[in-house]
Design goal:
The complex is a heterodimer of chains A (about 350) and B (about 190). Chain A has about 350 residues and is mainly α. Chain A is built from 17 helices and two strands. Chain B is an all-alpha fold.
Chain lengths: ~350, ~190
């Protein structure tokens, strides 16, 4: 009988980087499906083209850094960055916009810092903010959702044409609900709701269902233990609290109800797909609570009082910047040591 | 009254941050941000000096230069005022608190060359702030400077162990990071 000599650890975690990334991609499906139903095939075309650009940028960066290409290309991390950026961008974005954004994310925000596991800023959000500041018009022209003013959303062929030959097909763009609420100075919220067909049951037509889709995907990832609940719950709770504090029941200067903020723009997508990035967020559980809560506060402040109607990307970048500092002050107690790093007297010789 | 001052403070700390939005005081920002502890010492010293220098230069301009019609001498006289304030602070700190002097000692003379200090003094005149506004504006500028300096130092400690490509190591990746942070701070635009 041959005795096997196997050294510990005997229990292997089933999760590898590639598995985690695959799970993130799968968890995007409900939200992307909702976006595709309401806004047409634009998001899918965005994702496909962004993934191609992402893989190419990753390959170029790896080649320049003389790193093994096969291993890093197969870990899906470039695909996740590209997909998240493509989802965050407006549907039917022109091809060059995606090219600039995705290659900036992968080459500058990720590989200049040492690649996967070292990037201090979330690469997708860096790409988004660079595009938003450089090309504000393209980045804020959202297609009108299905069902508003009996609009027919473009088909697959038209979506591809719109991406690669911008302007070749007539597409209807509309202000998003967050834009409308921001520009509104005179109407009470109820009247605003009635005058603009973009508003749906709770937030915007289409947006609310996409948000619920991303919420569902996020809950599934929580169930699969891809990340802990701390950051997303803290962000959603602080955003709700801020919106409730400033909510004045629907007068013209209203900043929107808590439910509106939760289901508008990138709130859910940010909470479950962006701020949960294990590299660029805080590390400890307490640190993640602080990190998430401050993102929620910043999102509300910038949305309501700043220049940008949706603020998730800015809030995430600002807090990415603060994450190492948060980590410094929320280091968990190590076993056998008291708070502050001195050895525990109990049991010491 | 209170709202005015808080708007002035938020404006100086976040919206028009002296380092990341107005690009003043970049030398200490890049130079003293390698370690978190030194960054904290530097930011404390800068906060003290900047607030004091902002008030002193206001007094100098309004009670010395303006009555004599020597407004065009403000740049050179502010440099002198700042140097005096720095030297005075160093002497007082050395006599009164040797411990604090040991913590801040090296950084105090460096502040003389911090362009944010001169920038605040000149901006106070340009924006026609009164005495209290100058004081608050100087304090806000210093807090904003300290905030980004300390956060940047914590981040650079992490960058020091990252697998950064050789051509980008050190100051290069620091500048790129500062650029990305400046992008993030553009999100505060319009807040006040």
């Amino acid at each position: 009988m041959a005795l096997m000599r196997v050294t510990s650890p005997h229990a292997h975690g089933p999760l590898s980087t590639a598995r985690v990334m695959q799970t993130v991609l799968l968890a995007c499906i409900p939200g992307v499906a909702a976006l595709t139903w309401f806004f047409g095939y634009g998001t899918l075309v965005n994702i496909a083209w962004a993934c191609l650009v992402g893989l190419a940028s990753e390959a170029i960066a790896l080649k320049l850094r003389r790193r093994p290409m096969g291993m890093y290309l197969k870990d899906y991390s470039a695909l996740v960055t590209a997909t998240l950026l493509a989802i965050a961008m407006p549907a039917y974005a022109p091809w060059w916009l995606i090219l600039v954004g995705v290659s900036f994310s992968i080459i500058i925000a990720k590989h200049l810092y040492g690649g996967l596991g070292y990037n201090p800023f979330n690469p997708a959000m860096v790409g988004y903010v660079v595009l938003l500041i450089s090309f504000p018009v393209e980045m804020t022209s959202w297609a009108a959702p299905r069902g508003v003013n009996a609009i027919e959303v473009p088909g697959l062929l038209d979506a591809v044409k719109l991406c690669f030959v911008p302007g070749s097909v007539d597409a209807v763009t509309m202000a998003t609900p967050l834009d409308l609420l921001k520009q509104n100075k005179t109407l009470a919220v109820d009247a605003l709701w009635q005058q603009n067909p973009q508003f749906g049951r709770w937030a915007g037509v289409g947006w609310e269902w996409a948000s619920l889709g991303f919420l569902a995907g996020g809950l599934w990832m929580l169930y699969r233990r891809i990340y802990t609940w701390h950051a997303p719950v803290a962000m959603l709770a602080s955003l709700t609290l801020m919106a409730a504090l400033f909510d004045d029941g629907g007068a013209a200067r209203s900043t929107g109800s808590p439910l509106f903020h939760l289901l508008s723009g990138g709130t859910m997508f940010g909470a479950f797909f962006i701020i949960t990035d294990p590299v660029s967020s805080a590390v400890s559980n307490l640190g993640r609570l602080v990190f998430g809560a401050l993102i929620g506060v910043l999102v509300f402040l910038i949305r309501s009082f700043g220049n940008y109607p949706d603020a998730v990307a800015f809030a995430v970048l600002i807090m990415n910047f603060a994450a190492p500092f948060i980590d410094y002050y929320t280091q968990p107690r190590t076993y056998g040591h008291r708070q502050g790093g001195t050895a525990s007297r109990k049991g010491a010789p | 009254m209170l709202a005015d001052y808080s708007i002035l403070l938020i404006g100086a700390i976040l919206v028009n941050n002296f380092v990341l939005v107005q690009f003043l005081g970049l030398c200490p920002f890049m130079g003293v941000s390698n370690k978190l502890e030194t960054a904290m010492g530097m930011s404390m010293a800068t906060t003290f000096v900047l607030t004091l220098a902002s008030a002193c230069s206001y007094l100098t301009f309004n009670y010395l230069l303006e009555p004599l019609g020597l407004g065009y001498l403000r740049t050179i006289s502010f440099i002198l005022v700042i140097a005096v304030v720095v030297q005075f602070t160093e002497m007082v700190v050395r006599k009164s608190s040797p411990l604090l002097h040991r913590v801040l000692g090296v950084y105090l003379p460096l502040i003389t060359t911090n362009c944010a200090v001169l920038g605040v003094a000149l901006l106070n005149i340009n924006k026609e702030h009164n005495f209290m506004q100058s004081l608050f504006y100087g304090f806000g500028a210093a807090v904003g400077f300290s905030l980004v300096l300390v956060l940047f130092a914590a981040m650079r400690e992490r960058l020091a162990v990252a697998d950064v490509p050789i051509p980008f190591q050190g100051a290069a990746i620091g500048m790129i990071t500062a650029g990305l942070m400046s992008l993030a701070f553009m999100g505060f635009a319009g807040l006040v």
